[in-house]
Amino acid sequence: MEYATLGHTGLLVSKLCFGTMTFGDGRGLFKALSVVGQAGADQLIKTAIDGGINFFDTADNYTEGQSEQMLGQSLKNLNVARQQVVIATKVYSRVGPGRNDVGASRGHIMDGVEASLRRLQTDHIDLYQIHGNDSVTPLEETLRALDTLVQQGKVRYVGCSNWQAWKIAKALGISEFKDLARFDTLQAYYSIAGRDLEREIVPLLESEKVGLLVWSPLAGGLLSGKFSRTKQKPADSRRTEYDFPLVDKERTWKILEVMAPIAKAHGCSAARLSLAWLLAKPVVSSVIIGAKRVEQLQDNLAAIELTLTPDELGQLDEVSALAPEYPGWVLPFQGADRMGPAERRVGA
Q1: Going by fewer Cβ within 10 Å, which terminus of the chain is more open, N or C?
Q2: Burial 221-251 (b: 16+ CB within 10 A, else e)
Q3: 189 catalytically annotated
Q4: Which class would CATH give 3-347?
């Protein structure tokens, strides 16, 4: 296993993070995914830890809280010392029928953290993330609530998920101006089939030293190896029932066709190759992998050992490249005269 700092902090996390969305009895929003019981969860977490993973991600709305509860119970069943693992969870999504059982208000955050701590059977959360964009709550209210939790010791680091670049930038500015805990991470969708965040979000993260945690690195199973241009609806894939995240399928078939000979040359699955491509991106702090079966998890763990050549990375980058969009295409055109040989030496 390889490790990286969690954003611009001193906390080391495994480059592969185990996500527990598959834990539970098939209830709630993600019922098509959550089929792993407690015994299976224990086995998967043991396999993850044996493979060097020290980073675990969950959320308060995964299987109506069962995911958090089962993760906490697994760590207890396996006698894992609390200081040996980094636990990340999230707040924002609806967790009850009440008007305030959703959102990033101070009230919901304070209620949410207590419920998560109980389910996880711990006295602190290492990384507490705002799970979505709240268009109602003032941003400073959310940031002050998170800062309170950090000051109380209930939360050690904070992050967000699925936010726009402008809002992340605004939050970082408020935190600096008001001396509040800043976002150390963004959890976002990123895959070789979905590189949209490279337009605005990746440059922001690199500039402000915010870590990137990747969710759905296999594009909801589309890059698992089960799908192809001629096999678009395999019966044993969750994406057949739950077509998410949104992906340009025609573009993905072209990517998979280029991936096939590279995967064959390395004797690996398309899934492992997709993870290795992500792990080669410097902006990525950790890639979140989920599994229902131990053999699936073991294949994903092996991505750490797969090193792609510059030529192979070049082929994959080329076939998956984003179409030019304004203002991206005009920036190098207008900026060419600002980066002559002398300027490049100064900026190196």
Answers
A1: C
A2: bbbbbbbeeeeeeeeebbbeeeeeeebeeeb
A3: no
A4: alpha beta
